[in-house]
Design brief:
Helices cover 31% and strands 16% of the residues. By secondary structure, it is α+β, with helices and mostly antiparallel strands. The strands form four sheets. It has a six-stranded antiparallel beta sheet, covered by helices on one side. It is globular and about 55 Å long. 37% of the residues are buried. Keywords: ATP-binding, Kinase, Nucleotide-binding, Serine/threonine-protein kinase, Transferase.
Length: 383
């Protein structure tokens, strides 16, 4: 009998731990209905007695590797440490129970993938994706300035605010931090930020279609790799990626590493032409020129005769004029010029720096001004 019981336990669906009935309470929050179901988690609409609505995300503890919610809620707390910020969901509550973990956060709307699927020819107009891109870039820069890289940038992980939330309805939010990693730490002693040392090689993390060439070469992901992924997202929103229909991992990775920039950017506006050459100059430690990318996207918007307050492709009404302009709408892009952490190189060397110190320094040296990224490209052409 004991063996039969063990077998039943093994066959039990871990999703059973996170299927909750309507009316279940989580503190002041009550479940109203299910919003989404994933591989081993559920998302619910929850509500307080005074009518405040939010999203509850629950994941089972009975899965290999455990729940990613612990990491997600930690990062959300860090990102919202000084209060609610634009482009990032707010965390209202989180806890771990015997069979599951959960967190309650800002209720958002549709993601970019589902919005794109509803558009004519399943693409956004340039006037829309350029403004979406500026907001996504804002979200990434904010996350980077808090010391984290996302490592899974894709259309599904950017969501508009809920349509009933006037303040956030037109704001693009970054979410799903289950693969995120801290790349920089702040010292209370020195009052300065320092980079976390890059590993010599790193396992693949992310979604193949959008990962950077560096990830294809199993290199440590830094800020530049999130920006690479965002560029690939925008190319897809514009009509499609060169490897859109390629199924084999080896072929996709080879295309990313060897394909000429002009072919990757074939159908993109010419004013975006400087983005990839800039990204190729960067390595794990260096800061992307967010303002350069902002200016390129802003120019796309202007070329299309759009303003930040123009309708997005999915909108049927003009924006509410009573809502104050968001920070991303500032034409001088001052936010993108700010360097909050001042990291452009490896951490200081010292006795505790480890054996990789000299290797890091050598790897970052350049005989002819080439980046680590470019130097390894030729080595990987055999793929």
């Amino acid at each position: 009998m004991a063996n039969e019981n063990d077998k039943k336990d093994e066959e039990k669906d871990p999703m059973d731990n996170v299927r909750f009935k309507e009316g279940k309470h989580f503190g002041q929050w009550t479940i109203e209905k299910t919003l989404d179901e994933g591989g081993f988690g559920q998302v619910y609409l929850v509500k307080t007695k005074d009518g405040k609505r939010a999203a509850l995300k629950a994941e089972s503890n009975d899965v290999e590797g455990g729940s990613a919610i612990k990491l997600e809620q930690m990062i959300l707390k860090k990102l919202n440490k000084n209060g609610p910020v634009p482009h990032v969901p707010e965390l209202f509550a989180s806890a771990k129970r015997k069979k599951y973990c959960y967190m309650i956060m800002t209720l958002l709307g549709e993601n970019l993938k589902s919005l794109k699927a509803k558009q004519k020819k399943e693409r956004f107009t340039r006037g829309t994706w350029s403004r979406v891109g500026i907001q996504c870039l804002y979200a990434l820069k904010y996350m980077h300035d808090c010391g984290f890289v996302h490592r899974d940038i894709k259309p599904q992980n950017f969501m508009l605010g809920n349509e009933e939330d006037k303040e956030r309805a037109r704001i693009v939010h970054v979410l799903d931090f289950g693969l995120a990693r801290q790349f920089a730490k702040y010292s209370e002693d020195t009052k300065k930020w320092s980079a976390r040392r890059a590993r010599g090689t790193a396992e693949f993390r992310g979604t193949l279609r959008y990962t950077s060439p560096n990830v294809c070469m199993r290199m440590e992901q830094g800020r530049v790799d999130d920006v690479w992924s965002l560029l690939f997202v925008l190319i897809e929103l514009n009509g499609g990626l060169p490897w859109q229909t390629v199924q084999k991992r080896e072929e996709v990775e080879a295309m990313k590493i060897t394909m000429p920039d002009r072919d990757v950017m074939l159908n993109m506006p010419t004013c975006m032409g400087g983005v990839i050459p800039h990204l190729r100059t960067l390595h794990y430690y260096t800061r992307p020129d967010y303002h350069l990318i902002f200016k390129a996207l802003w120019q796309v918007m202007l070329n299309e005769g759009q303003t930040p307050r123009s309708r997005f492709d999915w909108e049927t009404k003009n924006p509410d004029p009573s809502i104050a302009p968001s920070d991303w709408e500032n034409p001088d892009g001052r936010y993108f010029k700010l360097d909050e952490i001042g990291i452009n190189g490896p951490p200081p060397t010292g006795k505790d720096a480890g054996e990789s110190t000299h290797a890091d320094a050598d790897a970052l040296k350049s005989d002819k001004g080439k980046s680590l990224n470019t130097k390894r490209k030729s080595e990987m052409k055999k793929i």
